[in-house]
Amino acid sequence: MKLPRIRFEKRLTSPRWLPVASLAGGLALAMLTIAIIFAVLGVDPLVAFQRIFRGGFGSVYGLQETITKTIPLILAGVGLTLAFKGRMYNIGAEGQLLIGAIFATGIARAFPDWPSFLLIPAMFVGGFLGGALWAAIPAVLKTRFRVDEVLTSLMLVYVANEAVKFLVYGPWRGSDTRGFPITDEFPLAAQIPSIIGTRIHYPTLIVAILLAVLIYLLLTRTKLGYEIRVTGENPNASRYAGMDYQRIALLVMIISGGLAGLAGMGEVAGIHFRLRPPESISPGYGFTAIIVAWLARLNPLAAILTAFLLGGLLVGGDAIQIALNLPAATVQIFNGVILLFVIASELFNQYKLRLEV
Amino acid sequence: MTSVLSENQATVQLRGIVKRFPGVTANNGANLEVCKGEIHALLGENGAGKTSLMNVLYGIYHPDEGEIWVNGQRVTIHSPQDAIRLGVGMIHQQYRLVQTHSVTENVVLGLREGFLFPEQAARPRIVALAEKYGMKVDPDARIWQLSAGEQQRVEILKALYRGVKILIMDEPTAMLTPGEAMELLHILRRMTAEGLTVIFITHKLEEVVEVSDRVTVMRQGKSITTLETAKTTQSELAQLMVGRDVLFQLDKKAVEAGATVLKVEGLNVLSDKGLPSVVNLSLNVQAGEIFGLAGVSGNGQRELVEAITGLRSVSSGKVVVNGEELTHAPPRARVERGIGFVPGERWMALIPSMSIADNMILKNYARPPIGNGPFLDQNAVAAYTDGLIKEYAISTPDRHTPIKRLSGGNIQRALLAREISEKPSLLIVAQPTSGLDVGATETIWNLLLAERARGAAVLVISDDLKETLALSDRVAVIFEGQIMGQFAASEANLEQIGLMMAGALRSSEADAQKESTAGEPA
Hints:
The structure holds 2 protein chains of 2 kinds. In chain A, 72% of the residues lie in helices and 3% in strands. Chain A has 14 helices and 2 strands. Chain B has 16 helices and 22 strands. Chain B has helices at 50-57, 80-85, 103-108, 118-132, 148-161, 178-193, 205-211, 234-242, 301-309, 331-336, 356-360, 378-391, 408-421, 438-454, 465-471, 494-501, and strands at 10-21, 24-35, 39-43, 65-70, 73-75, 88-91, 166-170, 197-202, 214-219, 222-228, 260-270, 276-286, 290-294, 316-321, 324-325, 339-342, 371-372, 375-376, 426-430, 457-462, 474-479, 482-488. Classes of the chains: A mainly alpha, B alpha/beta.
């Protein structure tokens, strides 16, 4: 008469392999779901997966492009590992990235005569400050007025979007762009060099990897990192120990926003050499970075690897769009499905399922 | 016992109920017999097993042993739905209402009658029910607009609407103002007059005498006896409730009490709900003494301790430590002035998923030798943590193990070790041994006595009266945020303490006017 009921029971102990197993299980289910979506779209899933892999990792050109896209993903993703560790759910890295791009562009336009060794570092600093500023807004709203940072950081993405559009259609539109909504090309001194024959702007890549290591050390070796971890894991214990929540929340957001801003700076100064409409600066790096951070289980070093994987997925997704004639949103669907399953799989680290008859 | 009432009048019978949880036996052969149309009080201290026994009757727990009889039939109750089908309803201390929904919507929530707008059809029935039992409730009001007393009436309506004939109420007056409590008692009388039955869980003697027809006293998971309320007295009930167990004899060496370390003067503190929970309270704790605060939990102990440690703001009064006023100082400043604190909810002071080392440095990470400029000195962390593990015999594979993997006794020892290692001049320990077995309890007690011998002022807050009396040099009893009496532990009179804990007796000074302080929640 009664249907069996599914109950979640809290685990009292959990084996060491469990986090890995649940992550693998989540990814496997995500793949299965994506395969079903392919099948519905009339594409053989195996062919599609193969194409994605070949597109992202299977050729020299594919790998070059993957590494190029890995750069902003490392920067923004590492920043988010820190924010999420501190329980600040910064969903607006995309907007922070765009404001970073605006600040970098502003500096390139303001000091066109500076030599490269001054101008490029100034643009790094500017990019960081822009993103940090944009992330500080939700942080202050959260700590002063208890406004949910998820909503404010997300909404500020759209504001940043419009800000970029306003600039490229308006005051910053170039003089020799034949009507396109883009700025003039940056002076040569403001262009970050790339490995010859590729779009890999290696100074940004080196900075990104260094920052990942630095953030890792910050979390594991410093007092601030300890405070961030305690506050994120147990806000009550943080209060009990007398930690300054407002300071921690603000710092975490500023650093994560700053890193996203660096990612935006890298895109305009390393690839496009000008400010463009938002969708051509970033195909959603700031949102993909959320998956980078969660897939890495909030470990900044692991985020280097997951950024590379998701970079490859972006490139491979582009490849199948053209080759298999799939809609442009396909990659975003991948990302959404993966994020959903990865986050859902975390549940099984704390709970086990029991069927009740 | 033999009931004066014949078998078929008993509407509920619980026979030999045993309910075990890992490490604890909540009920150990409890019996209860409730007659139709009576208000039956279930009296006992915290942890006596009252609520868990009623959770068995309501189908939340399944008994390991024992029988449940309802209306003369042996029944098995798998879930609250089963219980309601048998006419048994329960209202918990925490109301289960949807704050943004209306009264009517809450009453019909979860019922499967009508597909569209079932509350339209239900509304007249709800109004009629409320009228019948003299409950004033606006069926269209939203829950968040209602006072605690009104919300409780909604819970009662929910039960009545579902055809409940036997209503269990867990500490129903705990959240109410005195006026609302009086009103509740009238409603309950009307209900029993109509043939309904009420089981009333309480630890307040006054209420037992005021409302109940009969009372069953519980202690340590067992039902001690059932009495007719008219034929008993508050002091007899107090004695039965606290028990006459031999006190633990501790090897307590005499320590000369020294200077006053903690001085609390005329303290007033509000609860989370904005109600007065510590009322004009004063106390002193001296160096080299253990001062025990006895009382049923929820009488302002938590708020008092949080006010002393800086986790809760003080509305008026003073907190002075070692002659320095710290009433409004931030928590960190108090840690640095030598206040150690082991809260009753241990996970408030620990981070379960983090390692033992990360947990041990929670209080001193910012200062040398652990804190070194902006860094944590990993060698110092290792030396410090390994030192504590060894000194306090914390049983763990290593310092990297997440603290949640340790046993309850080891977790408490680790927590206490951390607080003691700072050599606090004031050590506050709430529920020092709750949930611990005998061996672990002894270790914790000895650690506290060692702190006393070192010259620390120790404030112990415990629900467990035996523990408080065994450990303390002086004892005070707290009830509704006020000190009811204070005496040397050696001169303690259990009966008196029982009465004070239940709010039925107060030594010396006249009762403070409650009217001026009791407020209705908005």
